[in-house]
Design a protein that fits this description.
Blueprint lengths: L2 H5 L2 E4 L4 E4 L8 E6 L1 H6 L3 H7 L4 E4 L10 H8 L2 H13 L2 E7 L1 H4 L31 H17 L6 E5 L17 H16 L7 E6 L16 E5 L19 H8 L8 E4 L4 H4 L13 H13 L4 E5 L5 H7 L4 H10 L5
Parallel strand pairs: 3-4, 3-10, 4-5, 5-6, 6-7, 7-8, 8-9, 9-10
Antiparallel strand pairs: 1-2
Helix pairs in contact: 3-5, 7-8, 11-13
């Protein structure tokens, strides 16, 4: 580096291999990671690791455990001694804690199907199904969902006021006479608007995510988000060895831009897969070593930031004690340090 550049206080990003002017850097508001509760339970130093990497937020995403991938796993962990210590460590270190949940089976218990099949989704053949999601035009179903959202929210209470109650993972929505004219994204948004209204009875500043992902990746057209609904864009079908600008199909930059035409960019969050060991392992144990593409990661973050997005996080599911013992250190510091160096669009 020549003398002129060094005098202007430039810092080097080890991941990007470029220099960024320190005084021009405006760190992202959310620099996060999503972990299984098992990851946190077996690696007690996770809060310190996140803090040292410059991250702001740890989100818990249900995974594994004797009850499967359920919200109850998160509740059991948070109410355990390890979970309480995790919350104390995060508070001491100034880290935010959130919970990103596929929550429909807890919001609308499947045990209600026998007595109230009308609350559940109808398939294309006109038959009500116990499995997956709900009928968003069933007032009774929405009442049950909202009551349980409040109960869960009083236990799994995010420090940011941002809640994440997602529909079942890439599963079918309702095809009844009232629902069939709405896309999966629109049905999800009908539900989210109602949940937000309910959560604001316990916290008027609550915000709630609309997950643009898999079958809800395309933006809603017929339904508009209420104030307080924010976009969470999660391009699960992307190729991790190619940048977002090079993606084809629905999980692309164009789809993100279309969603940002519906949802406020100021609150929009990207949920990426750069650190997702579970995805790299096809969600089967034993988990493999993370394939890490630093140039793709750096290009993606620059793209997101250029659009004005200030909240970026990534799944890091599967970075547990087994991972550290078998594969060594994951690139958490590179990830966090590069997020710190990214300049937001003003």
């Amino acid at each position: 580096m020549n003398e002129e550049i060094s005098q202007r206080e430039f810092v080097r990003s080890s991941t990007a291999g470029i220099f960024v002017e320190r005084k021009a850097c405006q760190p992202l508001m959310t620099r996060g990671i999503n972990l299984y509760q098992e990851d946190i339970g077996t690696v007690a130093q996770w809060p310190q690791t996140a803090k040292d990497a410059g991250l702001t937020t740890i989100a818990i995403h249900p995974g594994g455990g004797h009850k499967g991938n359920t919200v109850q796993n998160c509740i059991d962990f948070i109410q355990s001694d390890k979970g309480q210590q995790f919350l104390k460590d995060c508070e001491r270190l100034g880290l935010e804690v959130e919970y990103e949940l596929h929550a429909m089976k807890e919001l609308l218990p499947r045990s209600l199907f026998e007595k109230h099949p009308e609350m559940f989704r109808m398939d294309k053949k006109g038959k009500r199904q116990r499995s997956d999601n709900l009928c968003v035009h069933s007032e009774k179903a929405l009442e049950v969902v909202c009551a349980n959202a409040i109960k869960i929210g009083n236990i799994l209470k995010p420090t940011t006021g941002r809640y994440f109650y997602w529909i079942d993972d890439a599963r079918d929505m309702c095809r009844c006479d009232k629902c069939h004219e709405y896309s999966d994204s629109e049905q999800a948004l009908i539900l989210e608007n109602r949940i937000l209204k309910a959560l604001r009875t316990i916290d008027k500043n609550t915000t709630l995510a609309h997950l643009a992902y898999a079958n809800t990746i395309m933006p809603p057209e017929k339904i508009k988000p209420d104030a307080g609904i924010f976009l969470e864009f999660a391009p699960i079908h992307r190729q991790l060895d190619k940048s977002l600008k090079d993606q084809k199909g629905s999980d692309s930059l164009q789809t993100l831009k279309e969603n940002l035409a519906v949802f406020p960019v100021e609150t929009a969050q990207v949920l990426e897969y750069w650190l997702d060991v579970s995805m790299a392992s096809k969600w089967k144990r034993p988990f493999v070593k993370l394939p890490w593409y630093p140039k793709v990661f750096t290009a993606d973050v620059a793209t997101y930031s250029s659009l004005g997005i200030k909240h970026i996080t990534s799944f890091g599911c599967g970075i547990d004690k087994y991972y550290y013992d078998t594969h060594g250190e994951p690139p958490i510091k590179e990830y966090g340090n590069s997020l710190l160096l990214i300049r937001n669009k003003e």
